[in-house]
Amino acid sequence: MAQDRLDAVKLDGAGPVYDQIRRSIRDLILGGTWPPGTSVPPEHALMELLGASRMTVHRALVQLAREGLITRRRRSGTVVASPPATHAMLDILSIPAEVERLGQRYAYAVLARHDGRPSPELALRFGLKRGERIAHLVTLHQADDRPHVLEERIIHLATVPAAASEDFAETPPGDWLLQHSLWSQAEHAISAVPAEPDDAALLGIAAGEACLLIERRTWNQAAPVTAVRLLYPGNRHRFVGRFGPYGAV
Amino acid sequence: MAQDRLDAVKLDGAGPVYDQIRRSIRDLILGGTWPPGTSVPPEHALMELLGASRMTVHRALVQLAREGLITRRRRSGTVVASPPATHAMLDILSIPAEVERLGQRYAYAVLARHDGRPSPELALRFGLKRGERIAHLVTLHQADDRPHVLEERIIHLATVPAAASEDFAETPPGDWLLQHSLWSQAEHAISAVPAEPDDAALLGIAAGEACLLIERRTWNQAAPVTAVRLLYPGNRHRFVGRFGPYGAV
DNA sequence: GCTAGCTAATTGCATATGCAAATGACAAGC
DNA sequence: GCTTGTCATTTGCATATGCAATTAGCTAGC
Lengths: 249, 249
What we know:
Distance between the termini of chain A: 37 Å
Largest interface: A-B, 44 and 44 residues
Helix content of chain A: 25-40%
Strand order of the largest sheet of chain A: 4-5-6-9-8-7
Mean pLDDT of chain A: 86
Low-confidence stretches of chain A: 85-92
Strand content of chain A: 25-35%
Radius of gyration of chain A: 22 Å
Largest sheet of chain A: 6 strands, antiparallel
Oligomer: homodimer
Shape of chain A: elongated
């Protein structure tokens, strides 16, 4: 209810007032306290609650709107925005959506799954700590019955405990995580590798053929959420981005 | 001189005043009229010139500072910033700088150059128009005497006429262009390809080995500036980026 | 010459105020 | 019921004003 929302906005005394307001609301959104769709109290309410002038509150909200965290409309008020599904340079991609955008039929299968502590080899490959509880999944995504991408994924069960009781039969882990977890930071690495014999067989290509490897690790605050290696047959995929010298366009 | 700078800032009557000011100054910077280092008139001067209040001028300048186009310091004033050399996701990279950052010795050579109209094959590969005048360069960059990346580049002489009389003996075309041309938009494509026999020989790898291919095209406003294909031996390179759900971090 | 301190220029921040624009909700009229 | 108009809420924009913080450049004193 509204009272809850108001109580949650706090000033911490560090730095300019408008920035305290901005950070406070940003943290409520990024922390999940205000999920997308939540309506943000109107400027007058925040103004009275915080003892700041409306222009100061306004400045904080305008900035959050420019950052894409909230959307504002006259009379309707301010609501928490849904995080954009895509990024200017490289999508946090929903593979089913990607395949269907190309007009192809999507199919997917879990090839292997193992929950528990990582083996030394796995820990090395994904940069894991030895004692961590993780889920380890290998899945294959297909487009029009042809292999599209081979996915090997680690899910950190300490951060996403619900994943332990999910079998990912319906929803691929990437999409499931988008709905059941939050992330605040991601790191991508892109490289070209020859296909290992095992992987090549699964992808239906020749061993040694050039593949594009996308490695992505995702965190929420400091806690690791997931790590994934996506292996795309190189001859069928390319990733495109567009931007200007001062940032994404 | 100062008078010139003031004369150049204009309101166009479209939209909010603060945004007119912002766009006007942005265009002066992006258009090259105010190169990096130029000092922007102080708020009071703009205020009087434009007949707007200081807070309105202030708002425009604060936003430009947030966009990274200008830097502001109390008392010192406001100056046009240098465009950042790197982008969050993928650098517009200076290859010498990249090599030296790795602590390796950089060397480079122009392997071939041809100026004129593109052949049909070249036009197809780089998406050129037939009649255009271009420079076509093939260069090899080396790190510690080992091939680092093979570069094939098109420079549009209509947009960058100075390139016609530059031999690129000292400075690789990428770095030269950073200093002698402006760009407002770039498009990247990343893919994995097997090395062609010719390219493999130049890079000192086996034909068919997995390589990372970066294709980049750059424009200033609507005019094409350059197009380049960078072929990296896949086993020695990866590209890393880091960002959050609402944009680059 | 060198240093310490002062002054003034410039940006940063917050407030109070007023009006404009969009529009959800409701009422009035048909 | 449907449409039309009115009202009230909420955000958007601009102004005027005042003070704070930073610091380049000058000055006074040694």
